[in-house]
Amino acid sequence: MTVPETAEKIKSMEIRGARRIARAAAEALRDHALSLQAPNNAAFRQDMEKAAALLVSTRPTAVSLPNAVHYVMAGLGAAKTADDAKSGVIHRAEQFIQSSQHAVKRIAGFGARHIRDGDVILTHCNSEVALGCMIEAHQQGKQIEVFATEVRPRNQGHITIRTLNDAGIKTNFIVDSAVRSFINDIDLVIIGADAVTVNGAVVNKIGTSQVAHTAAEARVNVIVAAETYKFAPRTVIGELIEIEERPPAEVLADEIARTLPNVKVRNPAFDVTPAEYIDLIITEQGAIPPQMAYVIIREYLGWEIGEFNLAGGLPVGINGD
Ligand code: RUB
């Protein structure tokens, strides 16, 4: 798929979910590098930077996207020729794709250990990594049952229940506002993340903070499954994660909205759950309390506080290797 095609699919949410977005961006950059016939190194670099900036501009919240792009673009390194730059980018893209697959498997393994036989689990939105933990536990023979929310307005819950159904896991499908009604039946909440900040706050699908707050009130543990590339290096220097606000028509049809001139529809796609409502974040490097997010950013992402030379505001520092 070309870079503009991938960018369009991410924007329209045909490709969605933090991991899929990151992976699609890495694949698009790899394929772009492969097909690019640049006359020299400078031209190659410039073209790649344009492609990277386009991908990063598509959705602002999932930090996996700029992190993946940054990781791949670091393949340009100190290359002196276009050929070297090309193989550097392709190599880094392949590395990212592989390590992201590996991360999901490792997290599933770690996460499954936190799921006990007989647990009833609540999940919100559609997270490949969170689902990986549940499916792994199920495949280990643990009898689990899942409550999955609908996830207004884009109904990502429909994808979640199909995956759970196909895995043979007993599943209950509920509207988002029913979470509190069922929370006393729940043993564990498992969700994914679009971003984790230095203070251990988790940015995830809108409604996640309500779920986590409800769980905390009922003393139900909340586990977040998140690869290290979802941690946000720039939050170390005080930057806030931008919360994407999507078109009103996702919430209320235009023809109805038109008849309500005094009503403004708000449609934030994500919210922020503070660290105090999260018990554990499971990464491919192991499980940490959210208060240790800094360590992940420091040790596994690396951060030279210096800008990567790329238009479009990429985050500081994934060393990568
Ligand atoms: C998706 C969402 C998911 C995270 C984690 O939002 O909030 O919970 O991205 O998913 P959207 P994963 O549908 O708006 O992209 O674990 O698959 O990366």
Ordered list of secondary-structure elements with their pairings:
Elements: H1 3-11, H2 18-35, H3 41-56, H4 64-73, H5 82-113, E1 120-123, H6 128-139, E2 145-149, H7 156-166, E3 170-174, H8 179-182, E4 188-191, E5 195-196, E6 202-205, H9 208-217, E7 221-225, H10 254-257, E8 270-273, E9 280-283, E10 286-288, H11 293-301
Helix pairs in contact: 1-2, 1-3, 2-3, 2-4, 2-5, 3-4, 3-5, 4-5, 5-6
The protein binds ribulose-1,5-diphosphate.
What report would you give on this structure?
By secondary structure, the chain is of the alpha/beta class. It has two domains: about 5-105, translation initiation factor eif-2b, domain 1 (Four Helix Bundle (Hemerythrin (Met), subunit A), Up-down Bundle), CATH 1.20.120; about 105-240 and about 270-300, Rossmann fold (3-Layer(aba) Sandwich). Helices cover about 40% and strands about 10% of the residues. It has eleven helices and ten strands. The chain has helices at about 5-10, 20-35, 40-55, 65-75, 80-115, 130-140, 155-165, 180, 210-215, 255, 295-300; strands at about 120-125, 145-150, 170-175, 190, 195, 200-205, 220-225, 270-275, 280-285, 285-290. Helix 6 links the parallel strand 1 (about 120-125) and strand 2. Helix 1 runs antiparallel to helix 2 and helix 1 (about 5-10) runs parallel beside helix 3. The longest helix has about 30 residues, at about 80-115. The chain is globular. The two termini are about 25 Å apart. Residues about 305-320 have low confidence and may be disordered. Bound molecules: ribulose-1,5-diphosphate. Ribulose-1,5-diphosphate (RUB) binds near residues 125, 129, 194 and 205.
